[in-house]
Write a structure and sequence with these properties.
This protein is an alpha/beta fold. It is 47% helix and 15% strand. The chain contains 13 helices and 13 strands. The strands form three sheets. It has an eight-stranded parallel beta barrel, surrounded by eight helices. The protein is globular.
Length: 376
């Protein structure tokens, strides 16, 4: 599976693994890396039928490429979507590093571009550029990456942020023509870069109206580069499942209460979490302003409570009900769902057992309907 190519069943599922057990309801403890937990989580996704696993970027976290290489050695099929912030590593060394992972994993690498939406977090790694400048640097960075990956010989580059002479392209990817580029960021500057470079544009779980709006904007930017038909869209959620609808909503409320106990309002207020800099979090808070249950199965109370720090909106219901909610977003143009639970390992197992098969069945039915309509 490369670039904008989907699996045969028409929908892509991405999970997320952590180097140790941690989530909003499970405070991290112990060493930063628990190899046993990392491997168990990766194998649960592999055996559960996920297409890829996201490995996040944290200014105080382990190196994602090394985590991916270790997990790849203990899995068979699942791909690895490694978050990467341009600017902390030269694009030439990043090009070799990701192609090395692709070689060692047998063609299972993908890069998720995160330019950074928090000045404080960027400063921890020594980056003092403002947001628009960060995206301008990302544009140049991805242009260099793609040039090196495509080149048959040495690459030269003269730009605002990088000057390169004779970069080597000897380390090639297994995937052809290159590994896929996923992209996150919802500001105007981010969308311009996404339209130019992204194979898959990733957004967090929003209302139907918000998803329609941002897909239209990204496609308009992609059209400026003749790429409007090439770019795909990913949507992130935290599915909360149970055997009955009432039980699922009860579990959602229990998770919210647990988060309040773990975090506490004082912690949130002191950290400034209610006033996020990044546009993606601001969009989630806009959805939360419509109410805890703004439409259908969308649950925004956790995003509101945590200041929308990351992927924090949920879809709540039985596996079949949440699969039906996925289908509604699929009809809007979303073909990838990035999902993780508040009980990360246990939920990944349950998603593989129930939610992925239910969604794939509904998508197959929808595709068959489209074929039939086209034939009439």
């Amino acid at each position: 599976m490369t670039l904008n190519t989907l699996p045969a069943d028409g929908v892509e599922f991405i999970g997320m693994i952590q180097p140790r057990q941690q989530s909003e309801i499970h405070p991290a403890s112990g060493p930063a890396i628990d190899p046993g937990y990392l491997i168990a989580s990766a194998q649960a996704h592999d055996e559960g039928g996920f297409d890829r696993i996201l490995i996040g970027w944290y200014s105080n976290g382990p190196d994602g490429l090394q985590l991916a290489a270790h997990a790849a050695a203990h899995t068979k099929k699942v791909g690895f979507l490694v978050a990467h912030r341009p600017g902390f590593q030269a694009p030439t060394t990043a090009a070799r590093a990701f192609n090395t992972l692709d070689q060692l994993s047998g063609g299972r690498a993908a890069l998720h571009t995160i330019s950074g939406g928090d000045d404080i977090d960027q400063a921890r790694d020594g980056d003092w550029l403002g947001k628009d400048d960060r995206y301008a640097r990302t544009d140049e960075y991805l242009s260099i990456l793609k040039s090196i990956w495509a080149a048959e010989g040495p690459v030269d580059h003269e730009g605002t942020y990088y000057r390169i002479k004779g970069a080597s392209s000897e380390v090639r990817s297994v995937q052809s023509p290159r590994i896929p580029l996923y992209f996150g960021g919802a500001s105007d500057a981010a969308l311009r870069v996404a339209g130019k470079h992204a194979d898959v544009y990733a957004l967090w779980g929003e209302t139907h109206a918000q998803v329609r709006e941002i897909i239209a904007r990204v496609r308009a930017e992609a059209a400026k580069h003749g790429r409007q038909e090439q770019i795909r869209f990913s949507l992130s959620f935290r599915p909360i499942l149970a055997d009955t609808e009432d039980a699922a909503w009860g579990r959602a409320e229990a998770i919210l209460e647990r988060i309040r106990k773990v975090r506490g309002k004082a912690i949130l207020d002191q950290s400034g979490a209610r006033h996020p800099q990044n546009a993606g979090s601001q969009r989630l808070l806009d959805a939360a302003a419509l109410g805890d249950r703004p439409e259908g199965r969308l649950y925004t109370a956790i995003a509101r409570e945590t200041g929308a720090r990351g992927n924090t909106t949920a879809l709540v219901g039985t596996p079949e009900q949440v699969a039906e909610a996925f289908l509604e977003y699929y009809d809007l143009g979303v073909t990838t769902f990035l999902i993780r639970g508040f009980d990360p390992l246990e939920d990944a197992v349950e998603y593989g057992r129930s939610l992925l098969p239910a969604t794939k069945r509904l998508v197959a039915q929808r595709l068959a309907q489209r074929v039939q309509v086209a034939a009439e």
